[in-house]
Sequence to fold (1148 residues):
Amino acid sequence: MTKKQLQRLDLIFKNEHDIEEILTKTFSKSNEEIINDLISSGLKGRGGAGFPTGLKWKLASEEETDSKYIICNADEGEPGTFKDREILSRVPHKVLAGMAVCARLIGARQGYIYLRGEYVFLRPQLLEVINEFHQLLDKIGLDFRVEIFLGSGAYICGEESALFESMEGKRGEPRNKPPFPTQQGYKSKPTVINNVETLAHTYSIFKYGADKFKDLGVQDSRGSKVFSVSGDTPIPGIYELEFGMSLQKFVDDFADGDAKAVQVGGASGFCVPRKKFEKTVIGYQGKLRGTSLPTGGSMMIFNSSRSMYNVLHNYLDFFVEESCGQCTPCRVGTQQLLLGIEAVKKGDQPSSYLDKLMELAEAMRITAKCGLGQSVANSFSSIVENFKEEMIY
Amino acid sequence: MTEVKQLVQDLADQFGRSQESLLPILQGIVTKEQHISEDAMIEVARELNISAAHVYGTATFYSFLNTKPLGKYVIRVCKTITCMMHGKNQIIKELEAVLKVNLGETTHDGKFTLLETNCLGQCHKGPAMLINDTPYTELTPDKVREIIMMYRDKELRVN
Amino acid sequence: MSDKVNLRIDNIAVSVEEGTTILEAARKVNIRIPTLCHHEDLCVAGNCRVCMVEQKGSDRLLPSCAMPVSEGMEIQTNSLKVRSARKQIIELLVSEHRADCTRCYKNGKCELQELASEYIIGENGFIDLVPLKVLTIDNFSPSIIKDDSKCIRCQRCVRTCDQLQNIGALTVAYKGKDMKISSFYEKPMYEVVCTNCGQCVNRCPTGALTEKTYLEQVWSAINHEKKHVVVQTAPAVRIALGEALGMPAGEIVTGKMVSALRRLGFDSVLDTDFTADLTIIEEGNELLQRLKKVLVDGDKSVKIPMTTSCSPGWVKFIEHTFPEYLDNVSTAKSPQQMFGSLAKTYYAKKIEVEADDIVSVSVMPCTAKKYEADRPEMRSSGYKDVDFVLTTRELALMIKQAGIDFASLPEDEYDSFMGESSGAAVIFGATGGVMEAALRTAYEVVTGREVPFDDLNITPVRGMEEIKEAAVKIENPLPEWSFLDGVELKTCVAHGLSNAKKVMEAVKEGKVDYHFIEIMACPGGCLGGGGQPIPTSPAIREKRSQAIYREDSMKPIRKSHENPEVLQIYEEFLKKPLGEKSHELLHTHYTERNRY
Fold:
């Protein structure tokens, strides 16, 4: 696979005021055309899981029922991720435009933005934008309304089925799948749920065409991606970059010259040590490569002054609290991993106990009910494997 | 009618009485009272015709739906990795000193509660904290002291 | 008809209906996949992850209880990957469970223990989490003990309370490591809407929810020289006790049970069925009197529909949930409590023992009966009318402790007096049974003729349908009941409190105009009670139900009002139904309770 030169882009945050024109243009197309555009653009979900967006809309459009919903997932809780906040504060109208197109396409009259409680300060300005947007919808004659649903401090509600439960007035506990959201989502109705950034990208696709989007990025990982860069970097912040870059290139541009590891994809992502920067490519996991990483866009850089034990401890602490607690591997497994590394660090358990914990992490990966429990193994295994000496007393 | 009963009724009028209204109603109670009391939960259960235990189970799931009384200003300092790396512990120490409380406690005057929380989504500007709904970022001990002074001044002016 | 789906499980070809889960499909070919959170009475949770299986070509394992089959699936239920994951999950559960098995009430009957032993959970487990947590034991309730340190958070109890019973006394609270099963504000079960029905106890896989046991107290009473210990056995015990003693479901063990009770040393072995017959007389007359007051006198203070009152779970439920309908509940005490008050008055006198020296024990399919016996109203004899209530399970345990080989016991007869009963009393143990028994009597009282059903079997009120309705038209009544001529007596039968709630809501909304409603708190009626042998499932309830109706059909007397001992007690002691003595000893009142 070719490693592309890192290219900074300015698509998402470009402030374009042609929503009406773009919506009118898009609405003149048939549903099939819109879906084909999205599918051929190669756009995949930007929340981290990477489900093809066009296919998701298509599946929901094929369901026959009286009501459907489109939900914008703004429950951005992954440690190290803050891109959705930035998108919603700077270009919310693009997100709303994406929702409106989806609504018309699948036949939804109601949409929601599930905004995490930590971002409640965004609500007043967002409501203003929504009001203006509703006027525009009335003007172009689309029967569609968007409301904000506020979260209340639970990371797991970013998981789509947990988010539905939360909106239904319940504990945010992920559901069994199937049924999938496009079959039975919010209030058991077919629901499209897209990440904030995904929806903003659809706007670019409607405006500039699928080909332009597809030109960016590499095979399986098309388009650009908004990255949240934090940790040991002189220039923390939000950057829109083309997919397909090597991690080395990223580190060269963003780190402080002393990077020892990069955590890609947040606490539930992978930790890449210095020796693997060169061969690691940022993108969705493709069939042929084991080197690329799925990512919601969180890039946390650690320099050599950092203890990777502390980093892992912090992540595990997070999971121990934020697991919904319903399934055994996640509820108990996270506690065991945390206590386990503490015990090894203190010398209460032999270093060989780390092997048992690695096995546990693997068991969690293949048995946990949802992405949270399944992905704890990502950071755990990659940190313990690559920084074993830092874990031991 | 008790005050809390009236509050819950008003919120139910505003958001509706289906179970989907549970979170907005509980959030409304927290905004007004900083926490959801036993009485408030019983009223919510009655208004929405659901079990009181369900209300309790749901409220305790969400870290922002407090079931124990908190101060007028709830300070939540982010404890997640990048804020940690950038000196969160120092910030907590400073807050403990300024407020004369330990982490998890409320000041004697009932004005401030000091808590930790998970990622606030301000990782590029850590350390960060929320005071009620408002985020404060790139904190230093000096800055924290000023912020608290500002809130105290505000309180003095109110009284 | 839906299409068949073909798959292979452990290389065995299976063809099942679309929508079948992998777990169900595996059971069809006799492959047992272990489960913990799964229960046939409850919706799928998929949260314990013990039932994970491997699908060929899939990296992650699948929860067999929640995953529907699909065409061409190749499933392995015992691959190395499955075994390793499953063993770790069991180890994880053991690590958050206070594993003091030898001292646990559920020792030998615990599903986690069984799995741990099957998978040889050894020394090299995970770190014990129990000492790191504040976990409480709630033993304030006279019926149920909740021990959080034994809980594995499978949520069977929560789903039972929520869906099966629609009470919502139990919930899941907090998240992550703090997640636990809790009542409202973590109050003791005693203080909340819990009806003590014990359905959660019946479904708890571990010792986290158990009945409060009174075995030792009963043993002491039996061994007390001066005490005369009277035992009564509820209708549904005799058709389920065998299950707890190694016999198949659906065996009638009345005679063996009586033998066993004698061997255990009870001084009088009597039958709750006797007071079930008595209940029918009192309650049936109460119904007719209410109808007269409403239809003839236009008395607004008298409420119709009248509901039954023999299920203490139901009584506590209505006290919490529909307190405005307390006047609709029959004032007749339950058979257990009628028995209790008579045991220490009439019966004591008859056998010439001081009431003070009588210890009254009941064996019930029920945990709520323990609470009922504890109610302050239940002291009309001047003493606690029923001293100790044992569940079917506890009796089985006593029999085991005494070293009795139950299966080989001879059949024995109840003592007299208060040991005789009719078939109508036996069917109290099944949903619809009280209604059927009441109709057999009431119809005959009013018309002088037998109820117009083949062989007295009022089939419309039988069976496991959730809510049953039946109407009986009264024609040509005796002159005294002429006001009922042409009246269609409308009845309704519901079992399980979620169905009770539906019925009461319909009543409240004025959608129905029943005269008489029978409600049993437990699914299937008492035969599916919270104190019955574990497991209880739809199939087992069905078998117990068949046994009950078999027992009824074999009885020489089928109608309560023909029970000679009942006739005798009216003649000698009570004088007449709803008379002064009845009011003193056989009727009660109810209390409004909180709604949390």
Remarks:
- The radius of gyration of chain B is 17 Å.
- The interface with chain C takes residues 38, 41-42, 45-46, 50-57, 60-61, 67 of chain B (CB under 8 Å).
- Chain B has a mean pLDDT of 96.
- Chain B has two domains: 3-61, 73-158.
